[in-house]
Amino acid sequence: MDDFYKDGDDPTLPRRNGQIDWESPASWDAENAVEVIAQLVRDGKADVPVYAINEDRRVATRRFDLADAPLFVAEGIFAAEIVEECRRRDLLAGAYALRRPRSATFLRRLSRDLAEQRKGPRVLLSRGVALLRAEPAVLRRQTGLGAEAARGREVLRRVAHLLAGHPPAR
């Protein structure tokens, strides 16, 4: 879902302290994300954007083909923003917000962002610390939007139940 950010020159992007607020759900194109998910459910394939975070823009599209997979996972920090709409359209098998130690999330995010050279190291470090502090509020927001807080193993167990043709076990 990270490829559905708006381009950096989009005039609707939210700002905070004179800078684009990339942590705001308003920096993300939820409507397009839902349309692509609907197309994947309906047709099994869709063209999805390719977003270059270091350039703050979409640079291409790529064909995503489910190849007869019975389920797919749409994940990202703003995925909970579309839970209600996906439920309304009957596109959703489950919605989960990962609950794990904040330090683990911080280290994984920082390692990924540095490896992908998403931004400069100082920006990534300060952004990472800010997100570390905000993580409890993010989890509360995601569960408030309809995602269920769960540890990774629990999510995998529920997905396995779905793949076996059973409703999610609680």
UniProtKB/TrEMBL annotation:
Segments of skewed composition (Basic and acidic residues): 1-13
Segments for region (Disordered): 1-21
Protein name: Uridine kinase
Species of provenance: Micromonospora gifhornensis
